[in-house]
UniProtKB/TrEMBL annotation:
The lineage of its organism: Bacteria, Pseudomonadati, Bacteroidota, Sphingobacteriia, Sphingobacteriales. It comes from Pedobacter chinensis. It comes from the Bacteria. Residues 23-342 form the Enoyl reductase (ER) domain. PANTHER family: PROTEIN AST1-RELATED (PTHR43482). This is NADP-dependent oxidoreductase. GO terms for molecular function: oxidoreductase activity; zinc ion binding. InterPro entries: ADH-like_N, ER, GroES-like_sf, Lipid_raft_assoc_Zn_ADH, NAD(P)-bd_dom_sf, Quin_OxRdtase/zeta-crystal_CS. Pfam families: ADH_N, ADH_zinc_N_2. PROSITE patterns: QOR_ZETA_CRYSTAL. SUPFAM superfamilies: GroES-like, NAD(P)-binding Rossmann-fold domains.
């Protein structure tokens, strides 16, 4: 191990957000926790910023939307969070590719229930899940990227792994985008604002659906048309779409089937509750989803797209790590524009 600041791995203390029970944002406490010990294959990162994602509040609350048999059994206290940007401060003996002092970002150990532990001053990560952060943006911007942009990328461009898909028996396959018409629902949110940009980059015409407050943002990100869902029901006015990427998803995602061409595809980013399989088969539409997975190689590729200006990162709001509770309260209000990020002093 190189340049390790503490000789008693796991015994020195850091500040972290921990919870000792499932529940509302009040269960989040800023307190001391052991600095995580470094395992083979890992780097330890001094965290500068942490991106906030829906799985953070799902886990905080015990994944109540899942059937009881799927709800995670965790050992309290747990530390939420997956997405970080920071500086490498230790590298395991067997680990190559990173050095102390590198500025990096990562989506840490996802999917896992409570093993990522990113709401903290230090986090350990398998080196294969780490990449040098984009140089053109700061740690706040970089921490906003991993889960949302990897999700958009793995749905639209490259799945990036051969693990079985927990959400369907067949492999998710991205579809060609050049010259196609893509409808993006939830276009101003964390995943949605990246989906809009990737679709434009790949040559698609983009119809963005969001609340009216998102119009300027998503048009600036490249959307060709905008539908304010608070005034107009998208499926009443659009048809012959090639691909719908529904970043809201859930039980209502099937309403988009009738907007699609025969041969088109519906990608619900949040697939639980979809019940239109027979209708999709009758209409000749592919419905497919995947679960985002950590991938350092893809993050390195995405850093290049951020640095060359192809992809912009939008920040909704920032909160100090100590105020993670307030960040979760902000998230619960909805209408997120881009990403919520925690900052670490
Ligand atoms: N499959 C995976 O591996 C994976 C990975 C990441 C995320 N997800 C899931 O994807 C979903 C989106 O995640 P996210 O991080 O993008 O969330 P987010 O940042 O909260 O974005 C959701 C967006 O949807 C918009 N919205 C809400 N209701 C809407 C409606 N009825 N019609 C159209 N837009 C609506 C919201 O703003 P406005 O209401 O102002 O438009 C918001 O911008 C979550 O359910 C998350 O769990 C899945």
């Amino acid at each position: 191990m190189k340049n390790t600041p503490n000789k008693n791995d796991g015994k020195l203390l850091m500040k972290a957000i921990r919870q000792h029970e499932f529940g509302s944002p009040e269960v989040l406490h800023y307190e001391e926790a052991p600095i995580p010990g470094l395992e083979q294959g890992e780097v330890r990162i001094r965290v500068h910023a942490i991106g906030v994602n829906p799985p953070d509040w799902y886990l905080r609350d015990g994944y109540k939307m899942l059937p009881p048999e799927w709800q995670p059994a965790v050992s309290f206290p747990i530390i939420l969070g997956t997405d970080i940007s920071g500086v490498v401060e230790a590298v395991a003996d067997d680990t190559k590719g990173f050095s102390v002092g590198d500025e990096v970002y990562s989506m840490v150990r996802f999917p896992s229930y409570g093993e990522s532990k990113a709401y903290a001053e230090y986090v350990t990560v398998p080196a294969s899940q780490v990449a040098l952060k984009p140089v053109s943006i700061d740690h706040v911007g970089a921490a906003a990227v991993p889960m949302s942009l990897l999700t958009a990328w793995q749905f639209m461009i490259e799945v990036g792994h051969d693990e079985p898909n927990p959400l369907q028996p067949y492999k998710h396959e991205p579809v060609p985008l050049d010259g196609k018409t893509v409808l993006v629902n939830g276009a101003g949110g964390g995943v949605g604002h990246f989906v809009v940009q990737l679709a434009k980059w790949k040559g698609a015409r983009v119809i963005a659906v969001a609340s009216g407050k998102q119009e300027t943002l998503v048009r600036n990100l490249g959307a060709d048309e905008f539908i304010d869902y608070t005034r107009i029901t998208a499926e009443d006015v659009v048809h012959d779409i090639d691909l719908v990427i529904d970043s809201v998803g859930g039980p209502t995602t099937g309403r988009f089937l009738r907007t699609l061409k025969r041969g088109g595809a519906l990608f619900p980013i949040f697939p639980l509750g979809f019940s239109g399989t027979e209708e999709a088969e009758r209409l000749g539409i592919t419905v497919s989803e995947t679960q985002v997975r950590s991938n350092g190689r893809q993050l390195a590729e995405l850093a290049r797209l951020i640095d060359d200006g192809t992809i912009r990162v939008v920040i909704d709001s920032t909160f100090p790590l100590a105020d993670a509770r307030k960040a979760h309260e902000r998230a619960a209000l909805g209408h997120i524009q881009g990403k919520i990020v925690l900052t670490v002093a």
